[in-house]
Specification:
Blueprint (H helix, E strand, L loop, with lengths): L2 H25 L8 E6 L5 H10 L6 H10 L8 E6 L4 H8 L9 E5 L5 H11 L4 H8 L2 H10 L23 E5 L6 H16 L3 H7 L3 H14 L3 H16 L7 H7 L10 H4 L26 H8 L8 E4 L5 E4 L2 H13 L7
Antiparallel strand pairs: 1-2, 3-4, 5-6
Helix pairs in contact: 2-3, 10-11, 10-14, 11-14
Length: 353
């Protein structure tokens, strides 16, 4: 073999090595990091458009190589759907996922956080679905629908039909992340799904609720107040203990979060003294509310708050106050309570409304 032949062979081998390196590069993941990407293929979209979108989202390294790979693997059938991809996926994994059919491309996901009230839930529904405010309120005011729920669920009673309630289902819409087929989902389906979820979570507590001396509606009402007054499991148990002590002593709960709810304002809004003293069935600052819970829940509480309401801290404190960092201070007398507030103000820890 002469030098010329050796040179050609060496060049050919170098070329093969180079091709192999390029192939391995193009087949390898964009990144080693775990970075999820939701990728949607719409009806009628061409393979070229899909390849372009994959490249723009940083999921593949070469649009042309992707198209060639599909031909080589006879994998040109990609369905319109929503796919969960990741930047650490190899090209072969991406193609395999795209051939799987994915999930419904029109599917929507809505997260209802703990402590949202019906007004906030309504805002989310109108924002994320095709439903209007009137659609939500119409269902809430449907006597037929409310009766259906009372007949279907053991944990929903005629308490929800109290005419003094602002919103009948407040407290019973379990906070969680939900998926629905499309934005055209009905309000009824959304509510039923959330109530079903509430039922699944509350089941283990039904026996404890019966033994508590309070009704399901009252426990959920207490839990909703505790949810907004506390910031964690410990503070909520302590606060629940204070509220139960006040009820037993024939005192008002004196909870500002109920006053705000009563005048349909969020805690971030300004409120006047006359509004704080407004005579409504939710305002626990009123003397007429001594020894009483408000007429119903003021938000949709978490399981943590429901547990705190069933197993409150055992103590003899009657007052509490939180500093601007959320730390709770428990006291036994009104005088000591006021001294704590004054001390917090002097230390710059008082939360000014």
């Amino acid at each position: 073999m002469n030098n010329k032949t050796n040179t050609v062979l060496a060049g050919f081998l170098c070329f093969l090595v180079l091709v192999l390196i390029v192939l391995l590069y193009l087949l390898s993941p964009i990144s080693s990091e775990d970075e999820k990407v939701t990728f949607v293929v719409t009806e009628g979209e061409s393979l070229t458009e899909i390849a372009t979108n994959l490249r723009e989202k940083g999921l593949i390294k070469s649009r042309k190589f992707f198209l060639g790979y599909l031909v080589l693997k006879n994998s040109r059938e990609i369905y319109a759907a929503k796919y969960d991809l990741n930047k650490n996926m190899k090209l072969s994994q991406i193609v395999k996922t795209l051939k799987s059919g994915g999930t419904n491309a029109s599917e929507i996901t809505i997260t209802f956080k703990e402590g949202l009230n019906m007004r906030q839930i309504t805002d989310l529904i109108t924002k994320e679905t095709d439903n209007s405010y009137d659609d939500v309120m119409s269902l809430l005011n449907s006597d037929t629908y409310l009766n259906e729920l009372i007949n279907k669920y053991s944990f929903i009673t005629k308490d929800i039909k109290n005419k003094s309630l602002y919103y009948p289902l407040e407290g019973y819409l379990f906070p969680d992340t939900y998926s629905f087929n499309s934005k055209s989902v009905s309000v009824k389906e959304i509510f039923n799904t959330m109530i079903d979820n509430f039922g699944k979570h509350i089941k283990k507590y039904e026996s404890s609720i019966k033994k508590s001396g309070y009704s399901m509606h009252q426990i959920i009402t207490m839990a909703s107040i505790v949810e907004l007054e506390g910031i964690d499991k410990t503070s909520r148990k302590d606060i629940a203990g204070v509220f139960y002590n006040r009820l037993k002593n024939g005192m008002t709960l004196g909870s500002d979060v109920t006053s705000y709810y009563g005048v349909k304002k969020d805690m971030t809004s300004d409120i006047t003294q006359s509004e704080l003293d407004d005579d409504n069935p939710y305002n626990t600052r009123l003397s007429t509310m001594a020894g009483k819970l408000p007429v119903g829940p003021i938000c949709n509480p978490s399981i943590v708050s429901i547990e705190a309401s069933l197993k409150p801290s055992k103590h003899d404190y009657l007052y509490f106050v939180a500093d601007k960092n959320g730390k709770i201070y428990l006291t036994k007398s009104y005088e000591t309570h006021n001294r704590v507030i004054e001390d917090l103000k002097n230390k710059g820890l008082w939360f000014e409304w």
